[in-house]
Amino acid sequence: MAEKIILLVEDDPDDVDLTTRALERNHILNEVVVARDGAEALDLLFGDGRFATETAGELPAVILLDLKLPKVDGLEVLRRIRAEERTRFLPVVILTSSDEERDMVQSYSLGANSFVRKPVDFAQFTEAVQQLGLYWLLLNEPPPGWRGRG
User: Fold this and answer.
1) Over the stretch 99-136, which tens digit does the pLDDT of each residue have?
2) Could you read off the pLDDT of 70-102 as tens digits, one per residue?
3) Predicted TM-score (pTM) of this structure
4) Residue 149 near residue 1 (C-beta atoms within 8 A)
5) Does domain 6-139 have CATH number 3.30.360.10?
6) How many other C-beta atoms can be found within 10 angstroms of the C-beta atom of residue 118?
7) Within the chain, what is the greatest distance between any pair of CA atoms?
8) Domain residue spans of the chain
């Protein structure tokens, strides 16, 4: 089975760095593919990008999706992921600094698997990333026959 890939959809370079450092600190050495905006994420999944076709390889094991993105916002990215048969069951974790209740409600209404607020403190963030990695990359079992897994 191929290594499980993490798709990180995040426009803030500091948050990309923070997330990758937190993953490394927790010995989560999976490949991280970064999309810097919602349009790039959609292209990776559906356009000409890395995960666009079945022959391009397996889908990411989990998507860490920010909500406040340029070009196409995170909620629209989530809507598109859930609308497509091939990506419908992809685990999507909203990883955002938003504290708006409506963002949480909309995320779950559109099919987010989890909603995590980014802690400001690095130690707290590292702990949150450890838990995400443990659950989504090691413990979670995708639906039988799902094409996202080798």
Assistant:
1) 899 999 999 999 999 998 876 677 887 788 788 777 77
2) 999 999 999 999 999 889 999 999 988 888 999
3) 0.87
4) yes
5) no
6) 19
7) 41
8) 6-139
Distances (CA, A) of 12 to 19, 34, 46, 48, 105: 11, 11, 23, 24, 23
Structure tokens given for 126: 């590292």
Alpha-carbon torsion 110, 91, 22, 9, what sign? Answer: negative
